Amino acid sequence: MSYPSVASLLLSEGRPLPPAAPYVGAVLTVGGVLAVAYRLGRTHAAWHEVTAAKHAVRANRRVAWAHTIRLAAGAAIVLIGLLAAGFHLAR
């Protein structure tokens, strides 16, 4: 079963079809505004992410240096302990 379209109903009643240009223009305008708004939002978010990444790099660098210093201090303590034990055994 096939349903008649709105255009065929209007034509069968002898009425002209409404002009489509205003509807097409409105759809294009709404679509364009939505696309531009989306791109503006993504651009803003991207710059926000860049700023957050800069702060994260600084924080991660501090954490990495803290771990490195702790590792170096631990290794130094172990080496000093081994050297002290070696000197003690050598006597």
Please, could you describe this protein's structure?
- The chain is an all-alpha fold.
- It contains two helices and no strands.
- The protein has helices at residues 6-12, 21-90.
- The model has no long low-confidence stretch (mean pLDDT 86).
Give a summary of the structure in a few sentences.
With 91 residues, this protein is an all-alpha fold. Helices cover 85% and strands 0% of the residues.
Radius of gyration: 37 Å
Helix proportion range: over 70%
Which structural class matches the secondary elements?
Answer: mainly alpha
Largest sheet: none
In terms of per-residue confidence, which ranges show pLDDT below 50 for 5 or more consecutive residues?
none
Mean pLDDT equals 86
Give the end-to-end Cα distance, rounded to a whole number of Å: 107 Å
- Report the principal-axis shape: rod-shaped
Q: What order do the SSEs take from the amino end to the carboxyl end, as H and E?
A: HH
Number of DSSP E strands = 0
Count every helix, treating DSSP H or I runs of 4 or more residues as helices.
2
* % residues in beta strands: under 5%
Question: SSE layout and pairings?
Answer:
Elements: H1 6-12, H2 21-90
What attributes characterize this protein structure?
91 residues, 2 helices, mainly alpha
